[in-house]
Amino acid sequence: TREALFHAQKMEAVGQLTGGVAHDFNNLLMAIIGNLELLIRRLQHDPQSLALLNNALSGAERGATLTRRMLAFARRQELKPAALDLRPLTRNLVSLMERSLGPQVGVDLAFPISLERVMVDANQFELAILNLVMNARDAMPAGGRITLAAQSVQVGEGHAVGLPSGRYVCMSVTDRGQGMDAATLERATEPFFTTKGVGKGTGLGLSMVHGLAEQSGGRLVLHSEAGKGTRAEIWLPVAPAEAPSQTPPSPMDEPSRN
Ligand code: ADP
After folding, report:
1. Is 193 in the pocket of ligand 1 (CB under 6 A)?
2. Which regions form coiled coils (predicted)?
3. Which of 127, 194, 257 to mutate to test the pocket of ligand 1 (most atoms within 8 A of CB)?
4. What whole-number distance in Å separates Cα of residue 93 and Cα of residue 252?
């Protein structure tokens, strides 16, 4: 459709823009950090100057972390899809995340043992789930339960999701949080659309998930009702039985978004 094309073009433009800007910024920041480190070594005898320089250094380092995240976002286009077993991956990911979700938030998993493997890039898929779970948590400020579920679905012609016929796995992240009104729901996957306010949301989470699903031959489908909650479904094509499995990604040290 026209909207899908528009979205894809916008995402590509955003990806190229952030990639280019982040790359240049990273080089500039590396030069600034290098010079600051030299100055800090020279001014060891001057505590007042040292304090100022250390402030500048930590600012520059925060900037460098940001640009690296932006570069990672831009590189997201280079996907390496392979057959992936969602059950162990999700279980590991959730146990890693549980600490940062806090005691008020619980995660329930509902994955059938016989779940078929899907074709998707494992690292990007982890990021996508992370984004969806963080959104679910943000939608429940007082806490609550988040359900991650998956099932195999045979999609036929005229299926509501509008995918080509075939076998898919539909994985969903469900919360009983504040939900979205129709206007928010319509714009939710747009890059940079956020209702979370400056410094809180980037507006890139759902657009990343949407991009990954589409590029993997699947879909992101959002169901939401204001005051009731949200169910985000990632539909992914089932991997051919003979496809070699990909090695699961290494555990992430620190869950980061986007
Ligand atoms: P961000 O989380 O940085 O705002 P996203 O692209 O992930 O960016 O989400 C865009 C917007 O969609 C959010 O600001 C919020 O308004 C809405 N949204 C996303 N997920 C949920 C959810 N589970 N419940 C309610 N609103 C949501």
Report:
1. yes
2. none
3. 194
4. 8
Q: How many residues does the chain have?
A: 258
- Which whole-number Å values give the CA distances from 122 to 21, 84, 111, 126, 150, in the listed order? 27, 7, 17, 6, 16
CA distance 232 to 222: 5
pLDDT tens per residue across span 77-124: 567 889 999 999 999 999 888 888 888 999 999 999 999 999 998 888
Q: Distance from the CA of 227 to the center of ligand 1, in angstroms?
A: 14
Longest dimension (CA), the chain: 76
Indicate the pTM of the whole model. Answer: 0.73
d(CA 116, CA 170): 11
Buried b (16+ CB within 10 A) or exposed e, 112-144: eeebbbbbbbbbbbbbbbbbbbbbbbbbbeeeb
Half-sphere exposure of 107 (CA within 13 A, CB side): 26
Kindly state the tokens that stand for 12: 């590509």
Whether 152 lines ligand 1, by a CB cut-off of 6 Å, is no
**Cα 19 to ligand 1 centroid, rounded to whole Å:** 23
